[in-house]
Design brief:
mainly alpha, single chain, two-stranded antiparallel ribbon, about 425 residues
């Protein structure tokens, strides 16, 4: 996919250089919009500070650089994306036809993106090639579908210039958004090896947020410029800038909340009830198994929070359990710890599902929801794998013991998923 995007970029730039830029004023205006949108692209904010402090979320999604993505982080530069799509769908300027063509659209989008990216790289923000490759391919798809048909008049013959034309643009951008979701899921699958179907489902669900706003802004911008000229560009894009700012604030709040959960989870480690890093290991394993089993983004978020706080009830014990291994305690004591942990979680303001997962850790696995079964298996593996340093087969023995206990204590499907995750990672730690 990177090769296709790179080849298309080189061909578009070469073709534009050879034939010259048509309507340079229009290209400059849209290029400036794309460059500004790229310079104002989504930043990690508190999430980046959390990673620096050691409290990063345990999972990655789709096209993001890392961590759980907020509703707008799927498209980190919505203004730039909307500007590029609007240029791809531009057939008229102030009532007069334009003839820039599909390859010039790609060339302008790439050049403007690089201009907007330059100051961010100079400030130490690494480029995110997934988004750039997807933008090249999706903008090219929209431009190739629209520009030839509009240029030779066939689109006007089929749809006219009224509501049917607007509907045609919306359908085209809907197909473009679907193409982008397919590409994003494919890139994530190639990078992580996670199942493709859940990744595609999450990408399609994310389209309902900023994806729909980007598509709508692209259509409105193209239509407004066609009637009012280039003065419509800043007016139309202001609402999308405000939306981007609001979603960034929302994501910052979510990131701060996750850092609070991670800090609270460390209380058992600081008090000596669980080994250092145990909660994060369980959360990482739970997230990987949940992805393997096809959980949605919302379910994975609940799973992560529950896994981080699953041992919080141990703070009620007078004497710590050796190595924090509650699986070795009597069933009644496990249930008491789980119920106390759920009560603590409820006081944090976490979703009710998180408290329920913590409370149900000691229940028979057939009575637990899938998320609680995943946390239970991940916790048991993390405890059993804490073998002495000279026992290199400790993790292997842990997996085997889980498999032997599937008839009574652990869900066989979850244990099998854990085995696949460990085998694929090449490590049983």
């Amino acid at each position: 996919m990177y090769g296709a995007a790179g080849a298309l970029t080189l061909f578009a730039l070469g073709w534009t250089h050879w034939h010259g830029v048509r309507e340079p004023g229009v290209a400059l205006a849209f290029g400036a919009l794309i460059a500004v949108g790229e310079a104002l692209r989504w930043d990690d904010g508190p999430a980046a500070r959390g990673r620096a402090a050691g409290y990063a979320p345990v999972r990655e999604r789709g096209g993001g650089a890392g961590g759980e993505r907020g509703p707008g982080a799927r498209e980190p530069a919505p203004v730039a994306a909307a500007g590029a799509l609007a240029y791809a769908l531009l057939g008229r300027l102030g009532g007069e036809p334009v003839s820039h063509g599909a390859l010039q659209v790609v060339a302008v989008a790439v050049a403007a993106g690089l201009v907007g990216l330059t100051p961010r790289v100079a400030l130490g923000h690494p480029p995110r090639f997934d988004h750039h490759a997807r933008r090249v391919l999706t903008v090219a798809f929209a431009a190739i579908c629209f520009q030839p048909l509009y240029g030779d008049g066939r689109l006007s013959q089929w749809c006219g210039d009224g509501p049917a034309h607007v509907l045609c643009l919306l359908v085209l951008l809907g197909l473009t958004a679907l193409c982008d979701a397919v590409l994003a899921a494919a890139l994530a699958h190639a990078r992580t090896g996670w199942p493709y179907a859940p990744l595609l489902r999450d990408e399609l669900c994310a389209l309902a947020c900023v994806g729909s706003a980007v598509c709508a802004t692209g259509v409105v911008t193209a239509l407004a410029v066609a009637v009012a000229g280039l003065w419509a560009l800043p007016v139309v894009c202001v609402p999308l800038l405000l939306t981007q700012h609001a979603l960034r604030r929302y994501t910052d709040v979510r990131a701060t909340y996750r850092q609070t959960i991670a800090s609270l989870a460390r209380s058992t480690e600081i008090a000596g009830y669980t080994p250092a890093g145990h909660a994060r290991r369980v959360a990482a394993l739970s997230g990987a198994v949940g992805r393997e089993l096809g959980l949605s983004r919302r379910e994975l978020t609940v799973l992560e929070h529950a896994a981080l706080m699953h041992d919080i009830g141990q703070l009620s014990l007078i004497d710590p359990v050796p190595s924090g291994a509650t699986e070795q305690l009597p069933a009644a004591e496990q249930r008491r710890i789980a119920l106390l942990g759920g009560a603590v979680v409820r006081q944090t303001g976490a979703p009710a599902q998180v408290a329920q997962i913590v409370e149900q850790q000691a229940d028979p696995y057939r009575e637990q929801p899938l998320t609680a079964r995943i946390v239970r298996v991940a916790n048991a593996y993390a405890e059993l794998a804490q073998a002495p340093a000279d026992a290199a087969d400790g993790p292997l023995r842990a997996v085997e013991r889980l498999r032997l206990a599937t008839a009574r204590d652990f869900d066989p499907a979850v244990v099998a998923a854990l085995g696949r995750v460990l085998a694929r990672s090449g490590s049983t730690r």
